[in-house]
Amino acid sequence: MLSRTSRLTAILTAALTAASLTACAGAGRPATTAGGEVNRAATVRFSIANPPVQFDPIASRNEIGDVTYFGALYDGLTGVDQNGGLVPRLAERWAESPDKLSWAFTLRPGARFHDGAPIDSAAVVANLERALAARSANGLLKAKLGPVTGVQATGPATVTFTVSAPYPSLPAALASPVLGMASPAAFATLATAPVGSGPYKFVSQSANRAVYERFDGYWDPGAAKAARLELLSIPDGPARMNALRSGQIDGANAQINLYADTKGFQSDPAYQVLTKPTQSVFTLYLNTTHAPLDNPDVRRALNYAVDRNALSALVGGLCQPAVQPFPTGPGHIDGAEQQYPYDPEKAKQLLAAAGATGLTLDGIFLAAGLSQTLAPAIQAQLAKAGINLRINGVNQNDARGIFRSGKPDLMVHQINGELDPALTLENNFLGLDSPGGASPEITARARQAIAAPIGSPERTAALEQFSRAVIAEPVHVHVCSIPNLFAGTAKLVGLDQMPWSSITLNPDIRTLGLTN
Fold this sequence. Notes:
By secondary structure, the chain is α+β, with helices and mostly antiparallel strands. Helix content is 29%, strand content 23%. It has 15 helices and 20 strands.
């Protein structure tokens, strides 16, 4: 039997007639070997759905939506590569203390902010103290820095964190776009006039566009392939694809609900298409503080009421059925999808036994992209199990904030994958995007996984135990695992090198360039 990863690869290949998952270009040409030299005077125009809101990392309320806008402007101490691996950025190396209650990060020499100020330990500490002070009002920062009790400059190029308990996820947490390093001199105006540390510096912003230009003082001189980057928000997917066809943009986040549009690009040598599995899972988030969603049997009923295979078919089979939070890798349980076959009659029985016959739920969905495609179908499926789902479409930048407020019963969205799977648990099951939290058993399983050393057998075992527990007693309704789908002209290079593109749905576009 094919493994889950092999099945996904086969489906992606068949659906897009692609040569490989690494990159699939028109006429079989790889995305990164387009003919001609890279034009360092070029302007790259790339489009995603969500608009720019503000540019202060610690003020972000939509971490993944801001990856694309923050990624080229800011470096963190650590970063993410195109394969989902942890890489050095402003820190060259780091080490955990023997007692596991502190971490020391050694900074890269010669790095500067966009205003020319040096990126030394004092500047880094100023950034991190600012983030620590803001975490009580920002759940994203609390999730990343929860166990951190302090940060000090222990040398001109050394920064030391102290933690209240072992926190092996800290290097991965510091790669988050909400912890990018900004010039302390610009803290007061970062929202509208950011002064960052990445390969590109800010030029201008409008309601649906952000413009950056190469920062010639960046520590890695070859990192910025283009003279300018223009990020355009085009929420409507077909309009985004039409903008690519008409030459208004050079590349776009296509999203899998636009798979039919990408077939035309795939067969045209003037374009290229890239598909990559991610750690994102399409999910119905449930607020378990709302009765009767506080009853595990009602949540099980919802899992039986969703026809995952039918939903996958709506996007060409690209969104593979899932009942667990990890599509692949540590924590993934092969064969788990058989636990919740589509069975509306069983859903009705569970609801009746729980006294929830005639259940009505109020929810929200993103009025764009995959959520907009699947939400009506999910609504119709739940109706067959006697569940009345009333849903309203909201802006992508507002959705999580609305759900975190505790008002809706559910949110039709996706798990945003993390560099470290343990951080996925923190955000999606223990708080932030799980207003009701989880049962004591599931919480204990998650805490065990979070505390285990990254890459250790103990971590893998703990993640698997968590997955088994959350399948047996679901917190949310996981639907399908989402691959990334990008499209661009044949002249666009670096599409397959974008950081974050193997983890979540919005990429860091710092690697993009154009050939002559």
